[in-house]
Structure formats: C-alpha cells, structure tokens
C-alpha cells in the first residue's frame, strides 16, 4: 500500500497536468492521459528511473456504451412474464439488423497495464479516443515492442486506430470480417456463420440462424443486501 | 546460373508441430527464414464478450477452457480479480488448497510441454512417460471436482468443496484383478492427500528419468542450444513473462514478488537461465517441476494438520449448505437466486494476476454495480510470447521454428480466447 501512495505522489509531482483523474482503488492506481500526451507520458514512464516501467503487460480496448445501465427495472414491471423490463440494448438482446448506435462522449478507450520489475509496481493508464473525427490513439509500439499484437487486437475488436503502428491488421477475427465484435452495439450472436456446402463444394457464409437470447438479465440492485449502496440510497433521498 | 528467389510457405494450421491451430506464413531464402507471420485467431470464441453477458460466477468454467492444460491457474486469476472487487479473501485452508492445485496444475502443464516439445524434436519416449504421470494428477482433479480437466473448482471466496476423504478405486475387471488390482489401488487406500503424497514421493525419480533422456542428449542439445536466443532487454521489451523471462536471466516470479494464496509461507526457489536460448528455458521448466513438487509436499503436510472451512462465511457470494437448502425454504430461494442472478459487484476496476505455468495470467475486470462484468480482459501469457515469433525465428533454419514453437509452450485456447 505504501508503494502505491508513494507512486501516486511521484506521478502527481512529475507529470502534473499531463495525467488526470488519478484513482487509487484495491491497491491499484488508474489514471487518464490525453491522446496528445500519450506517447510522451509513456516514454517518460519507461525511461525515468523513479518509474522504470520496463514492461507493457497488457493493452486492451474498452467500449463504455451502456455502462452502468441495468436491464431489469422491476419498478415499472408489467405482468408479461420474463421479458418484462428488458430492452434491446444489452449485448445478446439484438441481431445484426437490429443493432443501433448511440452517440456518447468518451466512449472508447485504450487501457494499458504497466509493470516495473525494478520497483515491483504496477500502473494502469487509460487513453480515451477523441469523440469527434477519427477514432485514433497514438501507437506505443516504438516504446514497448510488445504493444504490437495487443494494439492489433484492440483495433480488430474495437476499431480503435493506433496511429504509427507499422502493421495494423486484423488478428483474431476471420479473414474478411466486417465490424468490430467487442463493441457493445455488436450482437453477441454475430453476423454470419459458415458451413460446408456439398453442392457448391466449398465453405459458404450465411447470415446467422440462431436467435439472440440471453437468459439472465443484467441487474443493478440497490437494496439492503448491499450495505454500501444502502448508505448511498439514503443519501440520495 | 539461374536466379533464386525467396518463396513463401504455409506452416499449419494442420501441422503436428503447430500445437493446435497456428498458421505461420514463412518467407524463406532457401532453408533460412527471412520473415515469419503467425496468423492466429482460428480458435477465437469471444470468451470475453460471452463473459460480459453472464453473471460473474458463470464464467469460471470458461477460464478452464482458455489455457486448457493449466486449468485451475486460469480460474485462480479470474477468481482473484472478483475477490479484489468484492474486497473478500478466501479462508486460509482454501488458500492452501489453491496453492497445492496451482502447483499440481504447473506439473500437469510442464509434463504436457515436455512431452510435446520432445515429440516435436524427435524424442518419442518422453511423450509416453509424461502422459503416464499426468494420469495421476488428472485423477486428483477428478477426485476433487468430478472433472478431469475443466474443473470449475475455485470460487470467489474459496473453493467449491473440501478435499475428499477417500480416493476412488479401480474396479475389478477381466484384466485388472487379484494382485494387479491390489497394486494399482495401493496409493488409493487413504484420502486424496495420501494419494498426492504418494505422488510427490514418486515424482522426483521420474524427473530424473526425463533428465537422463534429454539433458545430455546430443540430438536434444543440437536442437535447442543457441536456438531462439532472447536477450534480457528484448525479453522485457516484448512483454515476456514466466519461464520465457526467467530463461533470459530475470529472477521474476509473481509467486515470490507479488505473492498471493499461501505462497508466502512456502519454501521454494526460482530457477533462472543464463543464455536465454531454448535449452535454458528447458532447464528452467524442468527445475520448476522439482520446485512445484516441493511446494505440494509442504501443502499436503499443512492441509493434513489443519482442517477448517474452505469457503467464506458470507452468503452474499457463498451458497448455503446442501442441508440448509433441503430443509429451509429461504435458503432454497437464496440458492436459486445466487446461481441464476448472481451477486452484484460494486463499481470499480481490478487487475489480478497469477503466475500461471506459462507466465503472467491476468484478468482485468471492470464492474458497474451490476451482476455481470462490464468488461473482462484476459491477459494471456502465450499471446505476448507468440507475438515475438518473427523476432525469434528470423535468420534461423526451418527446423528451428519447431524448437521455438515448443519452447514458447503455446496453447491456442488462451491466445485466441
């Protein structure tokens, strides 16, 4: 814990305004960096002896659409059975044709996890892609070579473009895949399915034949079972 | 003289040495590799997206299916991440059980690795030996969880149930009866812990056998010494973890440095390589098996002496006992709600990592006050390792590609997710 607080202080002292929203939770530090400072901050974190984050452990994308939205609002539930209160927004609730995109600010972010072997410390940084224009974040390949495939993955699954990446191709999805599957407005059942066609003598692509179906709704409970929520609830009213 | 051009060959996805579904596009200059481009994703199942559509506990079983030769270590990473978000800790006995099964899993994984790595490089016998020993450990998995591979044994707040008091015995059959039956059941007279103790006494000799077969073997050394060399600086740059990092000379092991479960109470050493080649990584992993054996012995001793609870006494995450459930209506309802809707996890994010046999296996969870993870990201060690494929094989011969694939200990379940 002491290392966490001292690292937090060092970050604040060294970077000042370059790093914002520093949160310490569960003994981990999370901070945000703007895209224009992304490479500069990361280079310093790697090279400055008081940080020495030699390793990029992980880089991933995140899509904040529908964050904090529960599906089952039982306050105004009807008597129509299981589907009461469940909208079509959650993943797994809609098909390819029914997908809708909403506009929201600060939707996509790239998240990195850094590790310093020298100081035995970890750090999590977030870089939100700009709301307007191209969905782009500067690439970190020149700082940590290991970022290469992680950035390709985030591009493939979320469509975040990493500017300066030498070889930004899809990596996990099929050749010729359309869309970015881990976005919250991409259906869980997918778009196309493949099978071998006896008559044509080759593999064919067809629209998926399964129905969107998720059996358990996403619920947000704020009741007596969750003490910390209860305090908050009382505070609200 | 006619002009010789580079040509491209396709290695896999249907190749016995491709360890699953690796497709490598190799640009060759004669027998020498100019560029290697691994194509992964043929096993992509969208595990993370699926997990985001299910309550937290429903995805524990998916973790087994990521790196399907180190099942419980994956579960451990995921479960620890949930525990971090909920601010709970498993009871001490559960921590020891987890430590023991993590190490059993490590031996399982390394046996699989040495078997297939040997087979790829022409050592057939070892494959059969390794699978003979794996059978005993699979039986431990089965005894504790009912499944030989996909256990779903770890739960947030502990483990599913305590270790069984007896080991299932082989039944009499046409071929196994009388003296033979007695002999195959000789380890199985006592509890699971007795069985594991028998194994730990038996295993060091087996490691010695493997060493006799390989360590000074001329062919083995020709195929591994000086192949796939990674310098310490590059190992850090490329995000290597686990034996791949230790093979290059870093004494870095999460079990010691960022300790979890009961590892801080264990006495064991971290083996470190010098040259960063395939042979050093082989030596590191072989020594790790010996060390795992040591840890298991210590766990068995402690677990025999210290009975206790293996699940947290917090009904927010732990199910009620079977007895309560059968006799009490409220408990039955609670059980039903817990296993369908699950529990809600307070808003926040957490990253928890464990030292899986292949390296750092981490799970990054983002929770939004609901019963499902908002975002789950699995940090698979193999993904970082295979991304260095081009760098490791560039300039070497075609046959060395097989050594490098083997030394990375690749499993596609975790790379493609």
What does this structure look like?
- The complex is a heterodimer of chains A (237) and B (417).
- By secondary structure, chain A is α/β, with parallel strands linked by helices.
- Chain A has helices at 2-15, 38-47, 147-158, 227-236, and strands at residues 19-25, 28-33, 55-63, 108-116, 121-128, 136-138, 161-163, 192-197, 202-207.
- In chain A, the strands form 3 sheets. Chain A has a 5-stranded mixed β-sheet with strand order 1-2-5-4-3.
- The longest helix of chain A is centred in the first third of the chain and has 14 residues, at 2-15.
- Chain A is globular and about 65 Å long.
- Chain B contains 18 helices and 8 strands.
- The radius of gyration of chain B is 23 Å and the shape is globular.
- Chains A and B meet through strand 3 and helix 3 of A and helix 1, helix 9, strand 6, strand 7 and strand 8 of B.
Distinctive features:
heterodimer, A: 237 residues, alpha/beta, 5-stranded mixed sheet, 4 helices, 19% helix, B: 417 residues, 3-stranded antiparallel sheet, globular
Distance between the termini of chain B: 49 Å
Specify the structural class of chain B.
mainly alpha
The low-pLDDT segments of chain B are none
Biggest β-sheet description of chain A: 5 strands, mixed
| Beta-strand fraction estimate of chain A | 15-25%
Overall SS class of chain A: alpha/beta
Poorly predicted residue ranges of chain A: none
Q: Identify the quaternary structure here.
A: heterodimer
Largest sheet of chain B, in brief, is: 3 strands, antiparallel
Number of contiguous helices of chain A: 4
Helix share, percent of chain A: 10-25%
Query: Biggest interface, which chains?
Result: A-B, 51 and 59 residues
Strand line-up of the largest beta sheet of chain B: 1-2-3
What is the C-alpha radius of gyration of chain B, as a whole number of Å?
A: 23 Å
The overall average pLDDT of chain A, rounded, is 83
**Strands of chain A, count:** 9
Order of helices and strands of chain B: EEEHHHHHEEHHHHHHHHHEEEHHHH
- Count of β-strands of chain B: 8
Distance between the termini of chain A: 35 Å
